[in-house]
């Protein structure tokens, strides 16, 4: 497959840096499968696009603050870790920076409450890390971690704001769960309780 086919020009001024306060005002592009016609709407218009027999699939992915910044134990050098996959038993597959300096056996401290030891190198330059901490890992991650954002997003997401919005959305959806099936804890942040 030629990945260059996916390259396209995207003007910086068209890239949203923060979510809209009123998520239902987000843009919605529709495509008519039969005619090929495209139309621009706002997300609140989605109800006009859904018909009896349609299937609405909700993305239930929860993005965690998986980017951690720490210091190597032996040298005090900066280290960056991007958690990719929870392997269980406090072990994670991750990407690390600087990869050449973070070898098996390296210890990274993330403040006083979290420590990681690189146990092995994985495919494609990744690492398997084993974490030690006191408390609940997700709570520590919420405090120390940052949301992994693509390089064209310059604004940092405030985890508290995202979490508060997420809770409001989930409460609204759970009130109407007979109409919407949710298999996990998250959904698109564009769904909001009806005012």
UniProtKB/TrEMBL annotation:
One biological process term in Gene Ontology: tRNA queuosine(34) biosynthetic process
InterPro entries in alphabetical order: QueA, QueA_dom2, QueA_sf
SUPFAM superfamilies: QueA-like
Regions annotated as coiled coil: none
Pfam families: Queuosine_synth (PF02547)
Entry keyword set: Cytoplasm, Isomerase, Queuosine biosynthesis, S-adenosyl-L-methionine, Transferase
Keyword Transmembrane (UniProt): no
Molecular function terms from GO: S-adenosylmethionine:tRNA ribosyltransferase-isomerase activity
Protein name (Swiss-Prot/TrEMBL): S-adenosylmethionine:tRNA ribosyltransferase-isomerase
Organism: Paenibacillus pini JCM 16418
Lineage: Bacteria, Bacillati, Bacillota, Bacilli, Bacillales
């Amino acid at each position: 497959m030629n990945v260059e086919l996916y390259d396209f020009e995207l003007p910086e001024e068209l890239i949203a840096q923060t979510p809209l306060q009123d998520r239902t005002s987000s843009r919605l592009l529709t495509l008519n499968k039969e005619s090929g016609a495209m139309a621009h709407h706002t997300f609140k218009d989605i109800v006009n696009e859904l018909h009896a027999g349609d299937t609405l699939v909700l993305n239930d992915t929860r993005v965690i603050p998986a980017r951690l910044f720490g210091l190597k134990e032996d040298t005090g050098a900066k280290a960056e870790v991007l958690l990719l996959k929870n392997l269980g038993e406090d072990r994670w597959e991750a990407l690390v920076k600087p990869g050449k300096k973070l070898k098996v056996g390296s210890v990274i401290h993330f403040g006083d409450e979290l420590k990681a030891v690189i146990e092995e190198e994985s495919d494609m330059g990744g690492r398997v890390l084993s974490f030690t901490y006191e408390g609940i890992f997700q709570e520590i991650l919420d405090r120390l971690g940052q949301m992994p954002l693509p390089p064209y997003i310059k604004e940092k997401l405030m985890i508290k704001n995202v979490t508060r919005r997420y809770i409001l959305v989930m409460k609204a959806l759970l009130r109407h769960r007979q109409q919407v099936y949710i298999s996990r804890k998250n959904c698109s942040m564009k769904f909001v309780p009806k005012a």
